[in-house]
Every structure is written in structure tokens, then in C-alpha cells.
Amino acid sequence: MPYYQFAKQLTPISDPVADLKRLRFITDADVKLTDANQLWRHLLQRVAVHTPTAASFETWLGQWLANPTLDLATWLNQATPVTNTIFTRVSCQLLGFEPGRDFDLTDPSTFLTTSKLTLPLGDEPLTPSALLTNFFWLLLTRGKNGQTLLDTLTGEGYLAWSYALPATQKPLLFNGQPTANFDPAQFINEVVFVETDVDTDQDGHADLIKVEITRPLDSNQGLQIPAIFTASPYNQGTNDEWGDELMHNVDQPLTHVNPDYQAPQEPAFAPPTTHQRVNGTREQATETFANTPRYTLNDYLLARGYASVYAAGIGTKDSDGRQTCGSPEQTAAMQAVVEWLHGDRTAFTDRTSGIAIQANWCNGRVAMTGRSYLGTLATAVATTGVPGLAAIIAEAGITNWYDYYRENGLVMAPDTFQGEDADVLAAETYSTTRNPARALADHVANENYLAQMRQAQDRTTGQYNAFWAARNYHPHLSQIKADVMVVHGLNDWNVKPNHAKALWEALQKLPGDHKLILHQGQHIYINAFPSLDFNEMVNLWLAEKLWQFPNQAGQLLPDLITQSNLTPGVWQPVSTWQAPLIPTALGHQMITINDQQADATATTWRHQPLTWFNSLLNDTDHHFSYRVTIPRHASWLAGTPTLTVRLKSNHNVGMLSAYLVDHGTAKRLTTTPQLINRHGLQLGYHWHTDDLRDFKLQNQPTERHVIAFGHTNLQNPTGPTSFHDLQADEWVTITMPLQPVMHELAADHELELILFGTDYRMSFRGNQALTYTIDLSQSSLALPWTDFSLQ
Amino acid sequence: MPYYQFAKQLTPISDPVADLKRLRFITDADVKLTDANQLWRHLLQRVAVHTPTAASFETWLGQWLANPTLDLATWLNQATPVTNTIFTRVSCQLLGFEPGRDFDLTDPSTFLTTSKLTLPLGDEPLTPSALLTNFFWLLLTRGKNGQTLLDTLTGEGYLAWSYALPATQKPLLFNGQPTANFDPAQFINEVVFVETDVDTDQDGHADLIKVEITRPLDSNQGLQIPAIFTASPYNQGTNDEWGDELMHNVDQPLTHVNPDYQAPQEPAFAPPTTHQRVNGTREQATETFANTPRYTLNDYLLARGYASVYAAGIGTKDSDGRQTCGSPEQTAAMQAVVEWLHGDRTAFTDRTSGIAIQANWCNGRVAMTGRSYLGTLATAVATTGVPGLAAIIAEAGITNWYDYYRENGLVMAPDTFQGEDADVLAAETYSTTRNPARALADHVANENYLAQMRQAQDRTTGQYNAFWAARNYHPHLSQIKADVMVVHGLNDWNVKPNHAKALWEALQKLPGDHKLILHQGQHIYINAFPSLDFNEMVNLWLAEKLWQFPNQAGQLLPDLITQSNLTPGVWQPVSTWQAPLIPTALGHQMITINDQQADATATTWRHQPLTWFNSLLNDTDHHFSYRVTIPRHASWLAGTPTLTVRLKSNHNVGMLSAYLVDHGTAKRLTTTPQLINRHGLQLGYHWHTDDLRDFKLQNQPTERHVIAFGHTNLQNPTGPTSFHDLQADEWVTITMPLQPVMHELAADHELELILFGTDYRMSFRGNQALTYTIDLSQSSLALPWTDFSLQ
Q1: What is the distance between the alpha carbons of residues A538 and A543, in angstroms, rounded to a whole number?
Q2: Does the beta-carbon distance from B53 to A349 stay under 8 Å?
Q3: Contact of B147 with B681, CB cutoff 8 Å
Q4: What is the pLDDT at residue A789?
Q5: Which among B91, B308, B319, B372 is annotated as catalytic?
Q6: Residue B52 Cα distances to B45, B59, B151, angstroms
Q7: How is the quaternary structure described (chains A, B) (predicted)?
Q8: Pairing mode, if any, of strands B636-639 and B741-744?
Q9: Catalytic (active site) residue A492
Q10: How far apart are CA B227 and CA B220, in angstroms?
């Protein structure tokens, strides 16, 4: 397993010797030592956190091998000078690698190459100064446990002495980034209620939303700290059963859309007529909480001096309002939290007293974090350009809700959520149900609201309309002022990669420091992989964005990193996510696809969409699909393919689906990270943990893997806002983007395109008697072939 | 989901009013109140941990429904007297149940019946005294989150005030059991090295073993506390890759055993020639640790005033010796830890200084906990009768290693570990590899030892021998002096139910308080189910065993609880695990089983034993098995079936396998608990968590479920110590027990017996040309049919 460490670079504000002194790895006296071996012994004493006595430290030394035959205690007593190679042999063991199994003591070089760990080799005696530099880098090197030695020592309590330092001296920096100097046992948990400018429950009063804050005690003692704000509609609970009950029936036919069709509009919310009167102020909150589900990245940052702030927003437990599922009001309510953190908005200590409270502990600089809906709202708030929002880390976020529940005029489900829609998600996240009396009082109005949403979202046609336009952040992406780190899974079929692509393209046109990490997972978090130093990258990056330490993280970190789909644990900086398109003709024939299945088949496929999926991938007799091999132009595909197809339907309705397939027998990467060590990641000292996990190769080889796909309604031939009054047997030319790809095609694999109608995993499945005729001679696929030169 | 609460019984040392006062739910003034509504308001204020101000408490009250139309704040202002029904309506909400979804406000009675929650109903005005009693019981009632309201409030910080009480006043009891009065942020983590009387590395010195202790600071302040000791060979790390490499090949033939056959003996360990000299003593340990993998039950108990003590034992990181996999030396080393806790043995602060340290913080009473190997060693140590070991909770423990890796003369794998044996487990758990220099120094000797173990365990024949006799705890079960709580899964095919059955039968002949809980899982922990109050039962039970609070837990808790295999979440006290056997004839025919498969089939089945398993269950044409329906005599099977079969093999080797099958289409229980709420169980306040989970019904119905099985070598016709020099075509009568069952046969299901040869999941798979002829007229199955009368 390679260990990629993009944050392991010397920052311009780091001085290794000063940094080591600051963290008490060395004293002034240590710096003056002329004997490298003696200095090394002192450094090792710091590493041996749990064996403080002379006797126990000697035993501790005696467990390591200095060379293939001598233990370190014995070796140190021999007075042979320490060399880079000796240092690295021992260091590999300190990092948890086992001699004989993980690496060869006689040949550490091979291990360093395969593991990508950068540690020095060489047989010259080390100077004390070179030894200190070695040790500085060792602390920043990741071990087998997926954490740097510094973070491992932190988890063992090495930094606990720093808790007692004056708050204003914190955080102690190491290589230009905060270390864990904040006592988790002393964290403050407090609740405030931020007043928004929206009134989504239409009671006349501005909606109040509950905000849960966890922050180090030091922020009450003169240290103003940045805030990590996570906007999570799920955070106060979810109504899973209710959501299941509301799932829509997708086993229904496509219907012809007439040119004059218009779906009902959703109701507009009148602005609030009253705001709460301020009756006084308090310095400290009065309401508290004990436990809240929290993204483990936030836990990691909390121990390093950040506040973690959560709001579930309108329509959730202890807050006012409705769940609007992505509307501007939801964004405005989350924006209000940033405004409060920045000092621009009122919050109260409780819902009724009118006692206002300021975020006087906050330095006014905020980053938003979170995945999926959470990442969505981070992006949405960023598009407001709200002051104080310095950065967002948008992971697997939606950037256009139409692209989440619809596609090119079709109702289209996120993978594994067939039948879900905006109204279902609104009901699922309406945790006001946890306030039974308030839910009862709101029941009729909320049901009415959901009924109107159900009309406005329009599952009858799947056409783009005002409802979806209100939930499309694309027109506002140009107003983003925050620096943005985008994280997305190339195999994410829930929030699909085109959401990230649109954001990334918009960011290319903006000033600021923007990063993109593309991984091979589906809808997952990536802060737990031994192979990628995501936590360290974030700590480095946010040190610049939020603390404004001039560590030049923006310049040091690559702008675009992509994970290899071929080799586990390989992460590569690449230059672009959009290579120029190279068109390919698809053939000369006229082909026919019969989309109707025998009733029994359709029933099976509706119940088991994966059975359909396997049939599709292996449908060699083309009875319901057409597969064509696409010639290779280069080894990589990087960007959004465009498919053009000339076809007709035998009725005045129709849809075309296309899957782009990597074909070749191989053990591919798992799209879900596999557990390596439960609770293996210590996010601080006696603080929360996370499970160490990473992608591995599948146990069994597979033949095919879908790397991109697209669907279009024949009535929307060139995209959701195009419209065509389709007639039966009328030829149309459709042009559609497939999902963006970033994929290396193995040398012995080939690329295939599969064309078909109904997608049992995602689309309506009416099993209509539809037959499509495709004129391949007037169809083509344009692909972003490229050859990255990678290490 | 029903909530069974066996610990929810008034203990003789509880006075509800005094208990409520002790935990500060009421003051002396509260007791004198004559207005029940006012008293209720005061109690609710205690429950509203996070909303301390008048304004925020009013909002908190206003979220609950007192009746189908009025919120509690409004209702309380109306001065209608509180009744049982009003109290229970609100209480259900406090317990997390949602009106309208989880229960009907107009009919709480139905919910109470289905949920098994005991809360009072009635419309008479409550007296203050009756209200206090209600509230006392409410605190002991489990909520939707799977914890009692008291434990929920504990997790929210309600008891944090009690941390500051003098140590000697702790623990505060509630209903005769300790509450969480011990600050996790102040827990002491310390290491000592216990000197054993064994020398398994044969260096002449008594093996030292490392012991990791976590305990409340109060135990340094005059409070002597009990110790929960978990003996876990896994705890310092495992060598998974090495173990995989050592897995034995099972695709090999059965071989004929000659009467004079004897496997090589394992080497005996000479006793140590020297013990460490004591050079002084210390009151406090010098070595520490930060994190250790810990059973969450121990975490729950830690917050309630117990110490948690872990030792990995001989042959592990930082300890001396070898991994002997169940030998008497391993037991003796773990026994030594109990002796030290009881004051009868020396431990040192480190491995070399000779500074001794006593467990002066311990009250000398110890319980051992843990599952699988951990439960095994708890049982093993208990069989020594060591003073100080007051109780063990033996979960899924091995009681005879022969029954783990062998069966009636056959090499037989624990399920999913085909090819594993004692030597493999020894290598896997030899975490001395984490001390590279020590592992290198020990390498040759350890390899030699493993090679000898490999011979002595004897995979050539699978016969019982001295190696296995040394690892059979059955002859020593009668020496158990500790009270024993046995927990075992009826679907545990790893450590099979016969281990628990043997222990339980031995305990029936001993004095003391013994408990048995049989669940429907496989090899799992059960302390995380909403449906069973296992944590509370243990807390109650250990309060009697270890603190010696006379709460009469032994009398209050049922001796034998079994989980229903028909209905999710139902747990039933039953009278016995062995009903009298009723024999059934199997037929009149002579049947033939051909055990040899086509090569391709055998290859597939070797790679995919579950494919074989499905073929076996559905093998209707009897080409490699014979299936017979057994007439029903009652609705339950409770105990060990005995199978007698007259048969012959066409060669001088052979094996017979038998599966007892519940046949009938049904959605059965999952044998693995399903996640309900990740981190949903708070084991204390800002302390560790566990995932709430429970058995559910499978999503898809299944036809058959194997409820018992057995295998025997035809050369061992009546058990492992019987021997027969089998000849080809010689008729033999074998008699074998099947795994013990505790199973309710649904009315429309039937019972089947499947007879066959090779078991691809567990046995050798040599695919020999073996044909068995069975004379059904001389074969029979004796079954423990019974009719429990259950609620």
C-alpha cells in the first residue's frame, strides 16, 4: 500500500529546529549536542511516550532492530555513529512497519519506493543537525496506521502538556499547521438560535434555527478561533419510515409532453413581518447539548483549535420552518449562520427570551464542510458570496437539484433510491417530528406544503421548470468568493460526478485557490485512507484560509488530484479534467432496440435492478440493447463525453440511455473502502476515533465496469431546456453529455458503448411497447482522450 | 420491537424515594409537595438537562404532547391533575417514541403491550407519592434508543455533578446498582507486569505478562473497586497475513487410522528456574498506555466504578513466552493476573527494575468478561477455582479445543475458517512480532515450537490425543467456584453451542448462581440490543458478585433466557436446555450416498462452500445426500439430539454428516444483528459509544434453516475416544450427538434430517470415491421435544 502525502512539504513559515523546540521534542541543550547518537536517544525518549523511567525506556529501545542483528538498545551502547539508513530502519519500525513482513531490514530502499514513504538512506555518519531534519520529516511521515508519527504521538498523549499553555499562545504550529493543543475534556458544547430573514412556516415571524457549537475552552480565554460550519439537514434526526412510505411508483410509462404543458408552481414564501425583539445580551450561551453526529474531519480539526458548528436549518428539530429541499430559503438560513459567526447577524440564547448572544469567540473566518446534502449546502451558501465564508470543502455535493432527481427531461433517481424525489427528502429530513407538539401544530400546513411541492416538482413529465430553476446553483457559481476544495467520487451514482464537474468548471473562471480531489469511490468520505493524507491536507489548507498563517498551502498542494482506477492507493496530480474531445463514428448500420420485456422479466428486473444491470452488461444478442466497441485514442479519458444519436421511436414518447464501459477481465477496485482497523484513527488524545479504511482490489475479477452514463428524453433532444413535440416514427438527433470521467484504460482493455432504453436502476420502468431505430451512420461519440504523463 | 427488561425489578436494597433523592432527582422539599403537578414539573426539570433557564425549559415543555391536542407547557398551566395515562403519554415521548408513528396518543395501552414497556395507565389523579414511584420506574425503562432513561440522562451529563463527591461515597446506587459517578476524563491508564509461574519461552525466567489497567481516579482516593478482567490474546495485535499463509490444505482425503497410531507429543515446558528479585515497591505504576481495544461492556462498567483490566498473556507484545493456544500454561498465566488483583502474586512496574507494585486500588473481587477466545480463557481460569474470581461472563467461549478444531475423530473447521488449527491461531496471536528485536531473538525457537505443535495437533487423523486432552476444560469444570453467566449464540457455527452446553450442564451440579442466555445470533456480542437489557442485567448481577451489595440479583434474574427464533426481539425465560429425548425411526429402506463429485463440481464447491451448502439443502434427487422428514412431537426442541446410524463405507475410511433442518418458507431472523444507530449507545457521559443494533427479519424468505449438525469419523463410532479399525464394506453403528438446539418449530414448518458425507464448509474435502450404504431400519434420531409454556 503506497502512502501519498501531498501535505508533506516544507512550508515557508516552518523552521524545523524551531518547530521541534516548540513541540518540546528538543531543548536548547539538545540543539547544542555534538553527539548525534546522544541526540537521537533524546529524540527517541520523546517518542517513547508511555515508558518514562530509565528502565522502561531501555526495554522500549530494546524492542527495535537497529540492523538485521542488533537491537537498538545494544546498538546505541556501541557508539557506532547513526546513519540515514540506521535512522530509517528504526523509523520504519516506529511507524508500525514490521521487519521481515512489511519491509526488509537489509533493503529498506525497495520498501521506501513501493510505499512512497520519503525517508533518507545512506551510510555516512549523520550530523546532529541532519538528524534533527530527519526527525522533523519523520514526524510528518505516515505510518502503517494511516497517521503521521506526530498524529500517532498526539493520540498517545504526547501533546497533553500543551493544553495548559495560555490560550493566546495557541495553536502551536508544526510545519505551518496547528497541532492538537486543545483539551477535548474541556470542550464547550453550546446552543444558540440564529434569526434568519426567511419565514418558511409563514407564521409572520422570522424563522429561528438552532445552532450547535463545540469549541475549545481556550476560545473563552482570549483566543479567537475559526469556525468549521457543517450545514446538515440530517443532524437532528431523520424520518426514514415516513420517507420510505412516500417513495413514488416508478413502474409507470413515459408520457408525451405537449408544447403548452406547464407544471403547477410552488408557493412563494412571504417574507417575515416581525423579527424577535432584543431584550438584552449575554456573553455565554445557556442551552447545551451533549452529543451530536459529527463528521470525523471536524473532530480532527476540533482538537487542533477549530470550533465545530452544526445547523440542521429550517424544518428541523428545535428550529422553525419547513424543509424546502434545496430552495433559496434553505440556503439563506444557512447563510445566516455564517453571518452570525462573522458578526453580522443576531442570535439568541433560547427561542423566546430575546437575549442576544454574539460569537465573540470566533475570529470571523468560517469554512463549511460535509458530504452530500451537507456539501450541497456548503456550495449553495458559497454562491451567496457571504462575507466570512473563507473556504468550503464540498464533498459529493449537489450543484443542481435537477441533475439529482431528473435528467434531460426524464425523472431519474439517484442510484439505490428509486422513487425518491424532493418531497420525499423533505419529509425525511423534517425532524420537527422530534418536537411532537410542534409537529402536530404544524401538521396540516406542512402536509399542504409537501402536496404543493409534489405538484411543482412534476414527476409527470420530468421537465425543467421554475421549481428546479430555483434549486439550480449553476447560475450563481460565479458569485463564489470562498476558496473551494471539491471532493467527488468517480463512481458516485448517487450525487453524480457532473455536479462536481460543473462546480470545477465555474471555479476555473474565478480568482482564488481551488482544489479538486477525484477518488474512485461512490458516495463516501475520504478522510480515513492510509493512502491519502486528506486530514493533513485540510489542516494545512485551512491554516492558510482560516487562521491566515502564510504557509502557502494553496501553492504547495496540487490543484487537481485523481486516484488511479488501476492500482490501489495511487493518487496523482493531473493537469485537467477536460481534455479536448475526439469524435468517433459508431457504425453504418440501422439498428433496432425493442425496449419491451416479457412481463415476468420486467417484474424480476423491477424487484432486482442489479439482475437487469448484469443482463444489460452481458446482453450479447442485443435483444434490448446495442453494444459497440470504441477505438482507443490514448490511455486516459479525462472529461465529459458527448454522445450524438440519430433515432426514432415507434411512439410519440421515448428515452435513450447510454453506458460507457471499461471492458476487460480484472480485479477492479472496490468502490466502497474496506475496513482495515476499527477505531484505528485517533483524532486527538482520548478523543473521537474513526475507522481506518481504504479501497482494495475486489476478491473476484469482473468483466465490465460502467465508467459513465447518460439518459435523455427524446422530447428534450439537446438538454433539459430544449423541447421537441415528438411524433411517432419521427427521426430526431439527440445530443447529450455523459457523466464526466477520469479513467485510465488498461492496455488490454477496450472501451464499449451500450445504447438502450429503460434504465431499471434509475428511470421510469413502464415496460411500454417501445421500439427504437438508431441510424448509427449519423451517430457519434466524442471522447476526452488524453495521455497524462504520471509518476 | 419489544423491549425486554429482566433487570427492571425492585431490589430489596432499594427505596425509590431515597434513590431519587440520592441521584438528586428530588429534594427534601420536593418530597413534601402536595401538588402532584408541581412535583412533576420539578421532575421534568431534571430530565431537561440541556435547557436550564426558565425560558428554555418552557420551550422544552412545549414540545411534548400531554394529550392528543395540548402541549405539555399549556397543559401544566391548566391545573388539571396529572394521571397515570397523562404521565405515560409524556413519558413515552421522553423515551423517544413518536406520537402518531410509534404509538397512538389516544391508545397508549396497545403500544405498551406490543413494546413490553411497563408504564402505568389510569385516569385517577395521581398522588405525589404515586408520581414519584412512577418516575422511579420511568428512569429504569428503556427508550427507543435502547437505553434506560437513566442511562440516556447519564449520557447527556445529568450525573456529572456526582464526579466531585468524595470517592468513599461512591458509587451512588439506584435500585441497588451503581450509577455512572466516575469521570472518564480522569481515568487512570497504567501498565504493570505480572510474574507468572510458567516459563513457556524456556529461558529459565518466569514469564512476565503485561497488564493494562484503566480505572477511575477515585480508586486512588480511598475507594477500593472491583476489577473486570478480560484475557484477550488478540489485544496487542494479530498477525493476520501470517495466519492466512499458515492455513492448512483441507482438500485432501480421509486416511485410515491404524490401532497402534499415536501422534507425536508436544514438548513439556520445564518450570522456571528463577523468579525476578524484588528490589523495592511503588504505590503507583510508571508505565502508561493511551488506547486499547476494549469490549464496550467494560466501558459501560468503567463509568460505573469498575476497573477494566486487560492482559494478552504469554506470547504477546511486551510479554514473555509463547502462544500455546489453550494450554494449561496459558490458563495459569491468566490466573496469575487474578491472583495479583486479589493480592496473592507479585507484579512489577516494568520488565527489568524489580520494583513491585500491588493492586491496592482493588477490592480483591474480580469478574472475567469477553467473547470467543476471551470467554474461553474466562472459563479456563474459572476451572482453576482461583480465589478472587467471583464471577465470569463467558460469551461464546470454547470449553474444549478438540470440539473447536476437531469432531469425533475428524479434522473439522470452525465455520468460515477452513484450514485453521491451533498452530495457525497461535501464530496469529503471537504479537511479539510487534517487538521486532524480541521476535527476531525468539524466531528460531518459536518456529520450532510451532512445528512441534503442528505435529502434536495431528491433522493426519483428527484423533483425540494428549495435545487435545491438555486443552479440554471439561474435566475441570467441576472445580469452578465463580458464579458464571454463559452467553451463547444458537447459530454460532464458529464456537458451536455444544461448548456452552457442556459448561451449563457442569454448572447445574455446582453450588453458586449461574445464568445462561441463548441468543439467535452467530459469533456476536449481545450488549447492544434494544430488545434485551443485557448491560443492566450485568450491572445488577455484578453489583451483587463484586461490590457485594445485597441486591439479590441472583434471585431476581432468570437462570435461563432464550431468544425466540420466530419473533424478532422476544426473550423468554425457560426451564431447561435439556428435555427428555424422544427417539424416532428414520425409515425402512437401505439407501446409498455417493460422496464423490465430478471434478468441476468439487472445485466449485471448494472455492464456494456456500454453493455446496445451497445444493445440499435443495438436493431433492438425493444424489449425494438423503433427506427425511421427522414427525413433530411438540413445538420446541430443547437440548442435544442424538443420532444413531447403521452404515458401511466401500473403503476402510468414511465420515457421516448430519444436518437437522427447519423446513418452511419464512423470513427468518438475521443471525447477525443489523445496525440501527451508529454510535447510538452512550456508555457514559462524553465517553465511549457503541452501535445500537438488533436482529431483524431477513428481507427475503428462505426455505430451510439448519438448526443443528454433527459429523463423525466411522472409525470413532461412539465419540472421539472410541476407536474402531474399520474395514471396507463393514457395517458399523455410529452414535453421535448433534449440536444442542433451542428452537421453536413454527406450526406450518416441518423438521428434516439430512444425511451426507463430506461437509465442504467444515471437513476435509478429498473428493474420494466413497459410497455409503445406510440401513435406515437400524437408524434413529432421538430429539428433545418439549412444550414450553411461554408468555
Answers
A1: 8
A2: yes
A3: yes
A4: 65
A5: B372
A6: 8, 11, 20
A7: Homodimer.
A8: antiparallel
A9: yes
A10: 14
Q: Give A613-661 pLDDT, tens digit per residue.
A: 999 998 776 689 999 999 999 999 999 999 999 999 999 999 999 999 9
Q: Do B64 and A433 touch (CB under 8 A)?
A: no
Q: Which CATH superfamily is domain B582-786 in?
A: Galactose-binding domain-like (2.60.120.260)
Catalytic residue check, B523? yes
- Decide: residue B78, CB within 10 A, 0-12 exposed, 13-18 middle, 19+ buried: exposed
3-state secondary structure B322-378: CCCCCCHHHHHHHHHHHHHHHCCCCEECCCCCCEEECCCCEEEEEEECCECHHHHHH
Q: Which three cell numbers stand for residue A684?
A: 486527538
CB A98 within 8 A of CB B240: no
Q: Which residue does chain B place closest to A288, by CA atoms?
A: B50
Q: Which fold has domain B186-396+414-461?
A: Rossmann fold (3.40.50)
H or E element at residue B437: helix B436-457
> Which residue from B minimizes the CA distance to A71?
B437
Q: Say if the Cβ atoms of A437 and B62 lie within 8 Å.
A: yes
Sign of the C-alpha dihedral, residues A381, A383, A386, A388?
positive
ipTM of the complex: 0.95
Catalytic residue among B19, B30, B423, B492: B492
Q: Which of B677, B760, B775 is nearest to B147 (CA)?
A: B677
Instruction: Quick: pLDDT tens for B181-190.
Output: 999 999 999 9
Closest CA to A654 of A600, A613, A593, A610: A593
Domain boundaries, chain B: 16-178, 186-396+414-461, 582-786
b/e sequence A549-567, b meaning 16+ C-beta within 10 Å: bebbbbebbbbbbbbbbbe
- Each as own residue / partner, the long-range contacts of residues A48-52 (CB below 8 Å, 24 or more positions apart, any chain) are A49/A153, A49/A156, A49/A157, A49/A158, A49/B288, A49/B290, A50/A156, A50/B191, A50/B287, A50/B288, A50/B289, A50/B290, A51/B287, A51/B350, A52/B286, A52/B287, A52/B288
DSSP sequence for B737-790: EPPPEEEEPPTT-EEEEEEES--TTTS-------EEEEEEEEEEEEE-EE----
The number of beta carbons lying within 10 Å of the beta carbon of residue B27 is 12
Give the minimum alpha-carbon distance from A211 to chain B in angstroms, rounded to a whole number: 14
Between β-strands A785-786 and A636-639, what pairing exists: parallel, antiparallel or unpaired? antiparallel
Nearest to B436 among A52, A65, A157 (CB): A65
Choose the catalytic residue: B342, B488, B499, B523.
B523
Cell reading at A509:
473562471
Considering only CB atoms, which chain A residues are within 8 Å of B682?
A: 290-291
For A33, other C-beta atoms within 10 Å of its C-beta total 18
Q: How many residues does chain B have?
A: 791
CB contact under 8 A, A685 and B290: yes
- Matching CATH topology for B186-396+414-461 and B582-786? no
Nearest residue in chain A measured CA to CA from B293:
A679
Question: What pTM does this model have?
Answer: 0.96
Do A59 and B351 count as a contact with CB atoms less than 8 A apart?
A: yes
Q: How far apart are CA B89 and CA B68, in angstroms?
A: 9
- Concatenating the DSSP letter of every residue in B525-544 gives --TT-TTB-HHHHHHHHHHH
Question: Among candidates A287, A310, A432, A292, which has minimal Cα distance to A366?
Answer: A310
Residues shown for chain A: 791
Name the pLDDT band for B622 (thresholds 50, 70, 90). Answer: low
The partner residue sitting opposite A71, judged by closest CB among B53, B185, B437, is B437
* pLDDT band, residue B644 (cuts 50/70/90): very high
Closest of B537, B435, B784 to residue B638, by C-alpha: B784
The answer to whether the CB of A210 falls within 8 A of the CB of A434 is: no
A352 contacts on B by Cβ (under 8 Å): 55, 58-59
Cell of B338: 487474578
Extract the C-alpha cell encoding A479: 458569485
Helix pair B84-94, B108-115: axis angle to 10 deg: 60
